[in-house]
Amino acid sequence: MFIKSTSRFQYADAPKIEVKAEADGKITGYGSVWDVVDGYNERVIKGAFAKSLAEHQARGSMPKMLWQHQTDRPIGRWEAMKEDGRGLYVEGRLNLKTSSGRDAYEHLVSGDVDAFSIGYREKQVKPGTVRDLLELDLQEVSVVTFPANREALTETIKSLQSKTELVDMLREGGLSKQAAQLVASGGWKALSKETAFDDDAAARLAALIDRATRNIEDMK
Questions:
Q1: Alpha-carbon distance 168 to 177, whole Å?
Q2: Is residue 17, in this structure, part of any structural domain at all?
Q3: Are strands 115-126 and 87-94 parallel, antiparallel or unpaired?
Q4: Which whole number is the average pLDDT over 34-55?
Q5: Which residues have C-beta within 8 Å of that of residue 207, sequence separation ≥ 6?
Q6: Contact criterion met (CB below 8 Å) for 109 and 31
Q7: What secondary structure letter does DSSP report for 117?
Q8: What's a GO biological-process term for it (predicted)?
Q9: What DSSP element (H or E) covers 66?
Q10: Residue 47 to residues 51, 134, 168, 199: CA-CA distances in angstroms?
């Protein structure tokens, strides 16, 4: 992934795999799958979550359950996570006493959303044409709408004809005018170093900005 700041989350989506939701709010599925090369030419290697899960267990904590990576929208709690031969298997329970939890449940059972995505910080990576993610500090697992939306974002960014269009797109996504202009001029690094901005909004836009910064040089 292009964004490499250790102070911010990064995201990876599991290939589309069935996510199950039960009447009591229990949900199960895979937050990540081993050895699948994603749109960033990265793949998660078996064992990547072992240390992070052990640290959570020692603290008596779990990664958060969020809606669309929005840190201000928890929708329940994860009750169990483990690595198996396929990937990171997760079990949790939606909080049906909250509007966000009920909404997530209804979207899942109706098929409006059907995937999980992880938020993490890189700890150990093997560089190469395909980057192997060897150790990840797992922060959260979200219920998301688009588990493989990267290609759509790529096509959207490629269709832009000017920095002005890029600024407009980022502003529509939630960035301030100043922050969007900084991204259009110098990419994510310019934004993170030169101005303060809403971390939650930036986190939700991380994947979008990642794609945008890959195309900045073509627009200069």
A1: 8
A2: yes
A3: unpaired
A4: 90
A5: 11, 149, 150, 153
A6: no
A7: E
A8: proteolysis
A9: strand 64-67
A10: 8, 7, 41, 29
